[in-house]
Amino acid sequence: MFNTIVYSLKQNLYINLTNRCTARCVFCPRVSRPVIKEYNLRLSYEPSVEDVIGAVRNSAVYKEIVFCGFGEPTLRLYDLLEIADWLKSQGAKVRLNTNGHGNLIYRRSIVPDLIGRIDAVSVSLNAPDAATYYRIVRPDFGPQTYHAVKEFIKECRQMLPEVGVTTVGLPSLDVLQCERVAEELRTPFKVHDLWKQTESATAA
Ligand code: SF4
């Protein structure tokens, strides 16, 4: 079944806002087979704010509500903020899983918009340097994107309660070097197992 608006895994509820993305990561099944466990995240339309709120229903039963689909949630920033406002009014803890391109998409810092709405941000970095990033993530914004993502992470660290960096455990990737970058950025670091990626919600 297509058009999964929300899906639950473990104690969290995930919101699938869009299939659009500003990257084409070499490992991502967003176009070919956007499936996580029993959930098919392919969208034939993007759900409205009302659709999402109606699908979440009772946020109190979840540990976290996470914006995370196969697609980049900040492409729908203003809808995301509206939904986050509602979630916060319900007392939910709200997380954003993102590729960190938000500032490039809107040509300004979007991090102040997230204050009071997003409790935790998880940014997928997936590379220890700009050239590797460009090769693996294939971002729309060109070779400088890596530096912009690092700046985004720094801003999040300054303005938001919780920020983490993730990397997919590709065999060709120097995960230790990625961890060093996360240390330099003074953020917690997590590796997602590539082969388990479609078993757990890791799409950014
Ligand atoms: S892994 Fe995330 S950032 Fe990369 S193409 Fe897929 S949805 Fe976009």
Folded structure, characterized:
By secondary structure, the chain is α/β, with parallel strands linked by helices. Helix content is 31%, strand content 18%. A seven-stranded mixed β-sheet has the order 1-2-5-6-7-8-9. Strands 3-4 form a two-stranded antiparallel ribbon. Strand 8 (162-168), helix 7 and strand 9 (189-192) form a beta-alpha-beta unit. It is globular. The chain starts with 5 loop residues before the first strand and ends in a 12-residue tail after the last strand. It binds iron/sulfur cluster.
What's this, in brief?
With 204 residues, this protein is of the alpha/beta class. It has helices spanning 49-56, 77-89, 102-106, 111-114, 130-137, 145-159, 175-184; strands at residues 6-9, 12-15, 35-36, 39-40, 65-67, 94-98, 120-124, 162-168, 189-192.
